[in-house]
Structure formats: structure tokens, C-alpha cells
Amino acid sequence: MILASCGTSGDDAPGAAAEGQVYKVGFPALLTGAAAFAGKPIVQGAEVAVEEINQTAFLGQGATVELKVEDIKSDPAKAIALYRQYATEGAAGVLCCGLSNEAGALAPVIRQSKVPAIVTSAILEGLASPPHLFRPVVLPSSPGGVYDKFVDSMAKAEAYKTAVVVVNGDVDAMVADGKVWQAALERNGVKVLETIAVGSADRDFTATATQIEAQAPDVVVASTLGTPTALLARSLRDRGYDKRILSSYGASGPALFDAGGAGLAGLAFATPFAADHPVNDTAKKFTERYRAKFNAAPDMFAAQGYTAMWLLAMGLKNAGAGAAPEAVGQGLAKVATQESVYGGLRYEGGQAILESPGVYLEWTADGKFSAIGNG
Question: Leucine-binding protein domain location, by residue (predicted)?
Fold first, then answer.
């Protein structure tokens, strides 16, 4: 049962030598600001994992993980300062990098240090770097990945002819993803009428929605962060646009309904995890534990925090007695596969790869998710 919750490492021996040990793990997190809708559930997912790791004695009888969480207030400099603080305090590992701008600033520091880090959510290209940085985050923009499969399926099922792509022009990862979306659309014979750049801090999308509605595309693709996606969808619906909107799993946070309301109806996304559509027993058990602890269903971000903490636990176990940071990094590098809430992951160069297409969902007018049959 324990292995079903965390996966396999390729060199998985009982951690009896670590009995009674306390493993300190630091987490510079996104608890306030625009990204808190993702940052808070990421932390909660990690907390569920810590509780499970400790209760099941995964690291040995009496051995426990002690998770220290502090808010970086969306400031990469604060993330760097906290990482260095955790290293000084004797952390065996760190969870980090909810956003790509944080990851871009922090990654060079981690690569020059001894304390390994697990990327929780950032999708910036090239982050994984064993034995320093490991990323269990499924990259939807990888060739043949979730975006490609999603567009292939949706374009075939709904026969799009034209599209408009909206990107957060000030977020490198969203710009890069926008190019992946456009290539996938064009590969399926869909003409991209325009790519529109908007700011990640923008909150009024009336002009953008008017610009899009005037072109009447068959589909709008939002390569944007969660809150801008929700506000864009609401503005489009307010302007009378009633066709499909596609986005990433960044649009899956339940809190986004507060921003988008019924305007989110018909916005579709592909996600590796959905609480009401579990792909395996690991996902079911995680959902049960999360509901019991927080009286709510976990979202994709909670799943990321849970998966990240379990990956670090596997590295701690592989490191054996003492779990010096360098040994934890080497232990993480030994992890070849992980049975996760997304299904089976395999690791190449510290980066998780998921072969399955994920689950295809759309928002309903009452703030729920409905499965799309071609997913």
C-alpha cells in the first residue's frame, strides 16, 4: 500500500537505518498574491503527503518529515533568501518553484548548492538538473504531450477552421506554450487569425474580447495564467462569444469560478489529474485523504504538491541513514519511475514523463467540471 502511494525508485530498500530521524524540508511557497489560487493547494497537497509519509512509516519507524512553509509573496528574491536559510538550517531537501519566474531566479542558486530541490509547478524549459533539481511536473507542452494530444482530439471532434490565441506576453512560459498551441492548431488545419498578447496582471479584458468577437473564430486558445484565463472567458461571454475556449490545466482551479463565474462555461482543458475522474487507486486514496483533511476536493495544483513531496520522500529513502543533502540528490537521481496520481511516471534527466493523454474536462455554468467524451 505504501509503494502504491509513492512509486518505485529502481533501488528501493527499506529505510530502517533512518529510524527515529527527523527530515527537515523547506518550502518557499506562493501563499498570497495572484498565484495564491495555485500556491495554497500545492502546499496543502504536500501536507497531505507528509502526513501519509509519517503515518505509514515510509522512511522507517519513528522517522518523520518536518515541513516548514513560508510565503515568498511572489518575490523571487524572497525565494532565494529562504532557500539559503533552509540550507543553513539543515534541510535535507526543498520544495520550490511554483511559478516560472521564481524558478528562473532560484534554479542557478540551487545548481550551485548541495540541497536538492523538487519543482512543484513551474513549467519553464530545462529546469530539471540532477542531482540538484528534479521535476515531477508533467510538461503539457512537450512534443506529443498533453497539448498536442488535446488539440488533435478537440480539433477533430469539433471541426475548428479558425482560431485566435491569447498569451500572457510577460510570462515566458506562456509565450512558449502559445507557440506550441499554434503549431498544434495549424497541424490540424486550423488557421490562426491572430495571436494577442495580454499582461498577466491585466484584469479588464473588454477590449481584447471585443477584438476577438469581431473576428468570430471557431475557437479561442488562452495560453494564460489562471486568473487572466477566467476573466478573459467572462469578458468573451459578456461580448456574446459562445464558442469553445481551450486552455491549460491552469484553468482548473475551483477558486477561478469566483473570477469567471458562469462565463467559464464551455472552457475546456486537459489535466493529468481530476478528483472526480481518478485514473488509479493512488489518485482515489489521495482524494480521500485530502477531503478528510481539508473538507474539499483536491485540484491539479494539490496533486502537484502531493506528487512533489512523495518524490522527495523517495530520494530521502534512497539516501539511507543520515540523509545528507548530497546523498538525497543522488537518491533522487536513482528514481526511475513513480506511481503517481496521474498514473505511471518515468524520469529522464530528472524530468517526469507521462504517456497518457490525461482527462479532458470543461467548466459548466454552475462551477462544476464535466468530462468531454473524446478525452
Answer: 23-358
Report which of 328, 358, 348 is spatially closest to residue 26, judged by C-alpha positions. Answer: 328
**Residue 314 three-state SS:** helix
Asked whether the predicted pLDDT for residue 12 surpasses 60, the reply is no
Helix then strand then coil, % of the chain, to nearest 5? 45, 20, 35
Mean pLDDT along residues 28-40: 92
Q: What whole-number distance in Å separates Cα of residue 97 and Cα of residue 52?
A: 23
DSSP output for 257-275? HHHHGGGGTTEEEEES--T
Q: Exposure of 87 by Cβ count < 10 A (0-12 exposed, 13-18 middle, 19+ buried)?
A: middle
| Beta carbons within 10 angstroms of residue 203's beta carbon | 10
Q: Give the fold, CATH level 3, of 146-271+358-371.
A: Rossmann fold (3.40.50)
d(CA 365, CA 265): 5
User: Which sequence spans correspond to the domains of the chain?
Assistant: 2-138+277-341, 146-271+358-371
Give the confidence band of 57 by pLDDT, cuts at 50, 70, 90: very high
Which CATH number does the domain 2-138+277-341 belong to among 3.40.50.2300, 3.20.20.150, 3.40.30.10, 3.30.565.10? 3.40.50.2300
User: What pLDDT score does 375 carry?
Assistant: 55
